[in-house]
Specification:
homodimer, 328 residues, alpha/beta, six-stranded parallel sheet, four-stranded parallel sheet, 43% helix, elongated, DNA-binding
Chain lengths: 328, 328
Amino acid sequence: MTVTSHDVARLAGVSQATVSRALRGDARVTADTQERVREAAQALGYVRSELGRGLSTRSTHRVALVAELENTLYHQLMRPIHDELGKRDYRMVLLAEDSDDAGLHERLLDRSVDGAILMTSRLSSALPFELARRNLPFVFLNRVGAFAGAPSVSADNFAGSRAVGDLLVRLGHTRIGVILGPSDTSTGRDREAGFRAALDDADISLPRNRVFRREYDEESGRMGLETLLAANKPPTAIFCANDFVAIGALNRATELGVAVPGDVTVVGFDDIDMAAWPAFRLTTVRSPLMAMAERAAGLLVDLIEGKIGTEHDIFATELVLRSTHAPA
Amino acid sequence: MTVTSHDVARLAGVSQATVSRALRGDARVTADTQERVREAAQALGYVRSELGRGLSTRSTHRVALVAELENTLYHQLMRPIHDELGKRDYRMVLLAEDSDDAGLHERLLDRSVDGAILMTSRLSSALPFELARRNLPFVFLNRVGAFAGAPSVSADNFAGSRAVGDLLVRLGHTRIGVILGPSDTSTGRDREAGFRAALDDADISLPRNRVFRREYDEESGRMGLETLLAANKPPTAIFCANDFVAIGALNRATELGVAVPGDVTVVGFDDIDMAAWPAFRLTTVRSPLMAMAERAAGLLVDLIEGKIGTEHDIFATELVLRSTHAPA
DNA sequence: ACAGTATTGTCATACGTATGCATACAGCGC
DNA sequence: GCGCTGTATGCATACGTATGACAATACTGT
């Protein structure tokens, strides 16, 4: 039923080995024979089996993108990753990272991929160590893992958040709140640290009841805004650890009849496409997400092909001033 | 370097064949031996090679999800598909459907997947015929292909759009515009037909300058709204072929200072999560996307395992009245 | 104790491709 | 016509797993 290289060989009147060589353009096969083989392959509609090829060469030219399906940030990153990998003759496979790691470990180590891009790795995750132990090349994207032995690509989260802190201070805010991401992610930690640094410099305190910490999703933003504003002395400005959170905050504010930026300033992080929509016009920090994704893909291929060592790339961020911030 | 079943066999003091059987829980291996093998596998950190397994069994337990990366609708569908496949012991692989079909054909036919879910298939696409010819099982999701030999799962697009048409008529609109999706998709065609049927029944015409046709994305909505409203006698209501388009229309309306629904009524289709956000509160038609995705995944697995024939499932839709519609 | 059967494990091979090595053959100089 | 070189192709095998056929062992009843 399936057409194999043996079928092609029979039709072209050569051996299977010659078919393999001919189709790869091996110079040891005459142009004449190559042509004949190619025609036979075409006629039969031959498609080389990735399984056979992979088994033989111990490489699949496939790369796993490991992400939490719920984290919508990666949707924007798939195109640049896909295209960069394509250019380098690699394919992308999406693996969902769920709570139970067991299946994921296996899927990464079953030899069906040559490497992985980890996008949503938690600092506490054992995965990077496991992969390193098994010599499966991988890079971090938008994360820095607890494991330092792998290349990473990330935005300058510390500087970016610090810039937001400085902005809020400059605008005269003193009661400032923050909706943070998970503390066991590098972005969660770094964005917190940068922001705190700015407030510290201005001698502005960040009491516990002005800190809300949860996931990187819209829902968290909704809850965060509501919770923070319910306090005795509610903040006049809220920094959200990423744009999805910020948009959730804006949504809840609208529902509660809270004016932004009239009643409260809201600032996000990442500058996803949606942030620029007129419905939001979110003031935020731009991470060069496309460039980062492309770089990560490139680094991974280099790593797989043994061309580089460990390298940590940090991309500069840029404050994007839109319409959700105002003086205190 | 890589741990194989031979290594496990050596350590457990049995043959490779026994390892294979033991790990699959074959009754022909004593519980005692199974335990010993399992321990050895554990000790060595053995992970079965998908390549070897696939080559031997001619099945990979992997299913391709074929989608255009730009079509954000599928992001919402990945979780139900992923989970349903997981339950049935299958894995999901995302393949980007780009303009050049060549690479895609190969990736589907290289025996690295057992089947495919086609989510963005164009009516003109040769892919379904190609897959059918090669006996690669597949199902259509949210589409009906020109090829009728494969199962399909879709919403009742005709009835849904007709309901929107009826609604607009009931609200007293007579100058009605529409922003349609590509005419070589079944959704594009069916949603157009249903809407036209409703207008026909009410003797309301749909002149060419009130029809804008483009892709299923936010950008198309922006352009569509602007174009339609620029006409001499602009429409007082606009039906958008899906929610992304509708949101694009809302965005552009905001930028242009056009009030919705004060100046113009806007209705979408699908009821994606975002449609309910307070920034939009979009009146739309709900497709049971989750249930559809789950069903498609289930059907595909049944098809792969030879349990069913061809079956076309159509899910009922439901009008969701929010805040973007008003009387003429 | 023996034949007969059930149980447990091994052997050998297939899956489809890639590749080191061997071979056949053409061309060449003498 | 002989041996030599070099090139085009074929042969054989490896990759890791699964499985049908078979062998070895234990167990049963008489």
